Amino acid sequence: MTLPDHILITITPGPDLRAFLDSRGYSSIFVLTDENTAHHCYSLIRHELPPHVHVSIPAGEIHKTMETCMQVWKAMTDARLDRRSVVVVLGGGMPGDLGGFCAATFKRGIDFVLVPTTLLAQADASIGGKLGIDFESYKNHIGVFRQPALTLISSVFLQTLPEAELRSGFAEIVKHALISDREWWEELSSRPWKTLSWQDEVKRSAAFKWSIVSEDPHEEGLRKILNAGHTIGHAIESWFLSAGKPVLHGEAVAAGLICEAFISKELNLLTESDFKLLKDYLLTVFGKLSWPEEESDTISRLCYQDKKNQGKKIRMALLHSVGRAVWDYSVEFESISRALNEYRAL
Ligand SMILES: NC(=O)c1ccc[n+]([C@@H]2O[C@H](COP(=O)([O-])OP(=O)(O)OC[C@H]3O[C@@H](n4cnc5c(N)ncnc54)[C@H](O)[C@@H]3O)[C@@H](O)[C@H]2O)c1
Ligand SMILES: [Zn+2]
């Protein structure tokens, strides 16, 4: 699998970004960070950049809102950006989704460059052109599809990322390996996760994600396999959030992958031995989440709010075997509750 021209992996992000911007001859450059990436990442490249305006937004998912967009659009207007300007977003998936959305809607859409600074954004969120913000309690409820002019990925930025965030992003890489390539999964799971080369893993992950999204850009079919682990994972994430004990996305996805693998095993898709390897590995890396037994049904019900469900049926992407996934598989409510209880009992 190869990367397209607009996705570049580099160890010299500053000079490469400068070369790209110079080659395009943009009329003005607007750099967006959040408060953490302003501190940790902007300082690594600011001196290499052509003259630009820098604006920072508050960090964290709670700020992925219309109010923040309004601040960004105001700053873009004050900076007199025109249709030949470019927005460079230096940050994780939150500023990437929001900043890309602001650029994609400003004056009916101007160019933007994503420079992802978290493992999650490098391996997943910065690839595929999904942009947007949260609305009321709905995640990514308002948004558009638009591809960045460039996604510039460098593991240089990961050095300041807290370990918990690194591990959370790693869950998406594990998911990509599990649904695409048994050999990749075996290599990856045979080493302690902290010793992996992020540059190599991100390259593989981004190339795999691109191969899927370029075939099905608007998620009509194949792209749904990327939701593996996420139907139950999102429900678990929402439950912990509403219980006032938020967990990181990747921790919930890891638990979701185990529960969904249990369902695959029950349906005779996944072998008992593959299930055991997968479960043991994910528990070792990500630990185990716990909730009271009676809450398993509440979490199952939360799966119904998932965007991928039509009517009353729960349709999800499932592992067919290690290295292969299927999508739109109808799963019964009871089967999800059973999987959640099996997980609890591990
Ligand atoms: N568009 C897509 O296809 C897609 C896919 C998956 C997830 N997402 C979105 O991505 C978001 C989650 O992404 P995320 O985990 O990157 O969240 P994030 O951007 O909120 O980053 C997590 C935390 O790490 C900090 N941080 C970022 N880079 C850092 C660095 N190099 N050093 C130190 N701290 C740093 C941030 O300030 C933040 O506090 C969610 O909003 C999710 O909806 C989008
Ligand atoms: Zn995810």
Mean pLDDT: 96
Q: Count of DSSP E strands?
A: 10
The kinds of small molecule bound in this structure are: nicotinamide-adenine-dinucleotide, zinc ion
Cα-to-Cα separation, first versus last residue: 36 Å
Most strands sheet: 6 strands, parallel
Give a structural overview.
The protein is of the alpha/beta class. It folds into 2 domains: 7-160, 3-Layer(aba) Sandwich (Rossmann fold); 170-190 and 217-345, Dehydroquinate synthase-like - alpha domain (Dehydroquinate synthase-like, alpha domain). The protein is built from 14 helices and 10 strands. The model has no long low-confidence stretch (mean pLDDT 96). The structure holds nicotinamide-adenine-dinucleotide (NAD) and zinc ion. Zinc ion (ZN) is lined by residues 172, 230, 249, 253.
Entry keywords:
single chain, 346 residues, alpha/beta, Rossmann fold, Dehydroquinate synthase-like, alpha domain, 2 domains, two-stranded antiparallel ribbon, 17% strand, binds nicotinamide-adenine-dinucleotide, binds zinc ion
Give a quick rundown of the structure.
By secondary structure, the protein is an alpha/beta fold.
Helix-strand layout with pairing:
Blueprint lengths: L6 E3 L3 H12 L4 E6 H6 L1 H4 L7 E5 L8 H13 L7 E6 L1 H13 L5 E6 L2 H7 L4 E6 L2 E8 L4 E4 L9 H18 L1 H8 L8 H18 L14 H13 L6 H18 L5 H15 L8 H8 L11 E8 L2 E8 L1 H13 L1
Parallel strand pairs: 1-8, 2-3, 2-4, 4-5, 5-8
Antiparallel strand pairs: 6-7, 9-10
Helix pairs in contact: 4-5, 6-7, 6-9, 7-8, 7-9, 7-11, 10-11, 10-13, 11-12, 11-14, 13-14
The protein binds nicotinamide-adenine-dinucleotide and zinc ion.
